[in-house]
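Lecture 7, part B: from sequences to assemblies.

Below are the input chains for today's worked example.
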Amino acid sequence: MEILGRVWKFGDNVDTDQIIPGQYLSIQDPKALGKHCMEGIDRGFSARIKPGDILVAGANFGCGSSREHAPVAIKACGVGAIIAESFARIFFRNAVNIGLIAIECEEACRRIGSQDEVLILPEEGLIKNMTTKEEFKFAPYPPLVADIVKAGGLLPYVRMRLRGREGE
Amino acid sequence: MGMTITEKILAAHAGKDKVGPGEIVQVRPDLLMINDVSGPMAVDAFASVGAKRVFDRHKVAVILDHFTPNKDVNAAKASAKLRAFAKDQGLPHFYDAGFGIEHVVLPELGLIRPGDLVLGADSHTVTYGALGAFATGVGSTDLAAAMALGETWLKVPETIRLDFRGRSSRWIGGKDLILLAIGEIGVSGALYCSMEFGGEAISRLDMDGRFTMCNMAIEAGGKAGIVEPDEKTEQWLREVMESTGGRAGTVSDGAQFRISLRDLRSDKDCTYREILSFDVTDLEPQVAAPHLPSNVRPVSDLKSVEIHQVVIGSCTNGRISDLRAAAEILKGRKVNRWVRTLIIPGSRRVYAQALREGLIDIFVDSGAVVAPPTCGPCFGGHMGALAEGERCVSTTNRNFTGRMGHVTSEVYLAGPYVAAASAVAGRIAHPEEV
Ligand code: SF4
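Predicted structure of the full complex, as structure tokens:
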């Protein structure tokens, strides 16, 4: 698995209201949520991004409410991965559970610039900045979290596991 | 290197000798909980993965407490869905309207044991840490997956130790201590961390006060709040055991605690992210002003604030000690005629105890409204919503914008003494003023 895309940068404490404002929480369809992604901080974001593009942010990304709509909107609008200095706990969990790659790497966040082209190799724990040729290492997901992400999220993963149990 | 109590519990549930902060572990929880708000989504997700039966019917609790007795058709539908699920799965731990609020009910029914690992689809699941359990909130999808598989993944949090020292006045309870701490460290001061409460003031605090403190760990961003079990914990558990008999999966079913009580404490050589110390000597009762639980002031700073409603209840302060505190103030007094005063026992058991002690008589005589156990006004759900510009002193845990009603309404968080005194005074008041 690899992700290649252009970088969109954000600061510290991007909260879930900025990612998907409360007025859209009654929407269930991921595509429709994706259209409003980041609307509370950057109107028009979802129209600009291309599939596989990467969010690079500061500390405490996704703080605020536990709404699963936030990572769903980011994933649905085409974002391939988020690299942040740190994530709020429930956001990180929800991201993994819906199969959205979330990576903590402080150095990368400081050094990667807006619009740089970046390649992420999640399994190897490697980020390559194709624009500046810099490389950054991060701790790859531990096997069980990696399995969830690889399955496409928690529900597909559980489906797979349950089928496996029946076969036992 | 030793481990903190949090790390010990996670290690025991991951089948490991040792775990450290940052490590991601696969754990097998002792209890899962859904309610009438988070439950319907979890039940749908559970069905969507093709799961037929929950992993262990004794380890899934379903409780209807937020919109109960059902306030409207939608709430009734949600309750009906969960009732059907509980029936179909044959869940012994199904608690319908009237049992009370989840975080009051589950401990008093003996469903939480020291050293347990509990996941609830509700952010205030952290309450159970008062018994020396590791308990945290997750989303509905997470909970659904855990119901199907009997396991989930957790990242081992760093632990912050909060020591409370000194001897406080009689008006100070768990609420004042936790508000003091949140005021100090802020709403993300313990982000992702386990908050371990200790020190002489915690040793002196009763179990109800400890539940109040752990309940609000989430208001500082904490993943869990926890208190090391001591004689008070043991005494409390003995009483629960006596009152509940021997149901499966409870403290009283004779099953051994996973970690012996004696080992259930942080090692001397464990690693804390930081150790904070709070002196509670001469502490004034604390109040969190709108619109953040960290906006904390001593009560005397707010004495000019006129109020329209008082709520005494919730998973934070709806236990018997809280009602006793309120009754101490309200006995022989009348609540101000312009202040609606709602008193909501946290559970049926608390209600029955309050009846036996004559507290309900005191409340009714004072002019307060005594409601059946429910979350009700705490989250603006039903019963006691606020109109435009109204102000409420509440013993609940969140005072975010619009939490209890209209977006321009205001919630001041306080303990039961201040809430009851304010009900009498018609404005925010120190208990000594009435
Ligand atoms: S009493 Fe309030 S905080 Fe507690 S579970 Fe109910 S709604 Fe949530």
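Note for the exam: Residues B 66, 101-103, 122, 124, 314-315, 375, 378-379, 396-397 surround iron/sulfur cluster (CB under 6 Å). Keep this in mind when comparing with the next example.
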